[in-house]
Design a protein that fits this description.
Layout (H helix, E strand, L loop, with lengths): L2 E5 L2 E3 L5 E8 L8 E6 L6 E6 L5 E3 L7 E6 L4 E6 L8 E7 L9 E2 L3 E5 L2
Parallel strand pairs: 2-11
Antiparallel strand pairs: 1-3, 3-8, 4-5, 4-9, 5-6, 7-8, 9-10, 9-11
């Protein structure tokens, strides 16, 4: 049974930072591309960032230069470090496993809320 458990969300002021974590189980983590997606109320889910087993990364234009995705295969965990947060970054952030390119894979976490507000 695949489980992806996100943590690290919360309320932060504009310009602040947060680090999200996603702990994976039930998959061979090191062999899976991992990704972060987000969905704001009333909007479609959008891809934020991905990282391949070989540590190649992709970022949406809206977060490039502000967010960093990384992975620790020893801990079966993928991270999303977010800097210079903006109110428009407010969304539920979900972890995804098994994707290819910008296409998400079949495994999703439950999501963690990130709210950027003063």
């Amino acid at each position: 049974q695949v489980q992806l458990v996100e943590s690290g969300g919360g309320l932060v002021q504009p310009g602040g930072s947060l680090r999200l974590s996603c702990a994976a189980s039930g998959i061979i983590f090191s062999m899976n591309a991992m990704g972060w997606h987000r969905q704001a109320p009333g909007q479609q889910r959008e891809l934020v960032a991905t990282i391949t087993p070989g540590d190649n990364t992709y970022y949406a234009d809206s977060v490039k230069g502000r967010f960093t995705i990384s992975r620790d295969n020893a801990k079966n965990t993928v991270y999303l470090q977010m800097y210079s947060l903006k109110p428009e970054d407010t969304a539920v952030y979900s972890c995804n496993a098994g994707g290819w390119g910008t296409r998400p894979g079949p495994h999703w976490g439950q999501g963690t809320q990130v709210t950027v507000s003063s």
